User: Fold Integral membrane protein from Mycolicibacterium flavescens.
Amino acid sequence: MRADLNFDFAVPTGRLPLVFCLVAFILTFFVTRTIVRYIRRHAHSDAPRKWWQPRNLGTGSGLHIHHVVIGVILVMISGVTMVTLAVDGGVPEFTVAATFFGIGAALVLDEFALILHLEDVYWAEDGRTSVDAVFAAVAVAGLLVLGFNPLSFFDIDIWRSDHSLVARASVIAVAVLTLMLAVVVLLKGKVWTGLVGMFITPLLVVGAVRLSRPHAPWARWRYTDRPRKMHRALERERWLRRPVVQAKLWLQDAIAGMPKFPDDAAVDEQLDREIRAAPAPKDRTPSEHLAKEPA
Assistant:
């Protein structure tokens, strides 16, 4: 007797996304663990780091950004993308799942400041990060509901119908360029310009060529040895933030029961607290500043 054992390892098309999700999950877990172990092993080394060596992410103020923050952002982006690109919005099970995703996203983003700072800052000033995250999520979802698409040049129907290499390579090239512009805009501290610019691409070009906000990473890297440019960034920030601060102070007074237009002294005091220049990178010494500063 002979038994024929025929195994079919083909993955059904309907389960292909789940397979890719599982593979990405496993690979990311092991890669992340490897990188974290490498960083921990070299944490106390005085040797200068090369550009390709993994290192902790942080801000100029000393805030350490844990990789859970990146994970939350990716989960939110992918979840909204899957809900937006649903083939059939009339499937009740999918609608129920999308509803629960919205509930979970709201609960997570309401504690986003805790995830970012890894401490309970819900009622502190740093807790405003959660409110900003919720506003950003609502703005993005609202633009999607109104029919705007991320990377506004990208047409899903064209991508599905035109399978030529030239067409798809062109779309990918433009997508990469647009994402690079978005990264530059975000590094310049213009979060709202970057978010809305993903839907209205010309805004990314404007944000990328204009001055950075003075406290942003771009200013820290590019303006700390160029005092004139940093001064321009600070002056521009005060000019742009003044009406926003005036409106905020008026709203606070209105909620307190005595609405009145804030005087210039109160506005200037608030601007002094909010607007600051980015500190110089730690690997740059004062002598290097003087050497690079124009005569």
